[in-house]
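== Item description ==
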Amino acid sequence: MSSHRTPLALGMLAALALVAGCGDRAPDIVASRPPALPSSSTTTTAAAPQVSSVDTIATGLRVPWGVAFLPDGSALVTERDSRRVLRVVPGSGKPATEAGRITEADPSGEGGLLGIAASPKYAQDQTLFLYYTTREDNRVARWKLGGRPEPIVTGIPISGIHNGGRLAFGPDGYLYATTGDASERGNSQNLDSLGGKILRMTPEGRPAPGNPFGTLVWSYGHRNVQGIAWDSGGHLWATEFGQSTWDEINRIEPGKNYGWPTVEGAAGDKRFVDPVVAWHTAEASCSGAGIVDDVLVAACLKGARLWLLPVGADGTPHGNPVAALTGEYGRLRDAHPAPDGSLWVLTSNHDGRGDPAPDDDRILRITLGRM
């Protein structure tokens, strides 16, 4: 989340109103508005989603950032600033233990040890993938427990802010990585830069077949994406930090331009793809995201809540977003689907912008229901 944001006097969910934001913006950003969601009568009659239960999986962490589940049911969790990879065994009653430390990572500002993903063939190859910041760049690396990371993509722009960092394998078997503009706005529209993009690659770090430009770039015009998830129809969704007016949820299509820095929010400009949902920044600042039972769950930092958005296999919203856990656990960094159908939610109250409770940071296990 950018430290350059200016606080706004905010109303409620911006996606339900067509009132343009009037917060401070850089002068070259086109005045924009939130998109309008279809009414429930044109989408679905299903009950709205809600959080049914919350249980604590682990406490005493420091800025947990990413999660990767392994075939044995355990999970590996990265800590941004400590550079540790922790092993968490749900249901064991045991605290998280250190499984490794990425000494190559250089924590500074919003950078450090960020995303993690397990190979879809982990049972055979025991390979993990990491996204981390060094003194020179952000990079993606392959890694095996007990070994040293093997960089497969380097040269992703670096800054104290806007480093992106999420990794996930898509249903197509390829690895996706999210990057930020690294506080240089021009990176987002520059197809020769890896900044401000969603990247799609083979496990060796090469451009995946079918990429729209023949490079690693899958989509561009992003400010700082830290959450990606796929719905039951295989459509890719992403959360994106705005500057001072609109935070976004976008449905990602290959080769499309999502507008930053020309526009923040919905522009109605055919050059760009408008977000599906947008909120004022104090209500959102969503980082990680996951989809369970056709509900996209976005974990928000400044907004200190989850947003629950019903989505269908057709790649469209099937209802209006619902806020959950507002202010109950502080800053929320990620919402990662677990093998048992729950989501693991990571708090981020030790990241220098929160108010840590004695047992922070935590991993929460949440289940969803309908109200």
About this structure: Residues 122-125 form the longest helix (4 residues). The CA atoms of residues 67 and 77 lie 5 Å apart. The longest strand covers residues 49-58. Confidence is low (pLDDT under 50) at residues 1-28, 39-43.
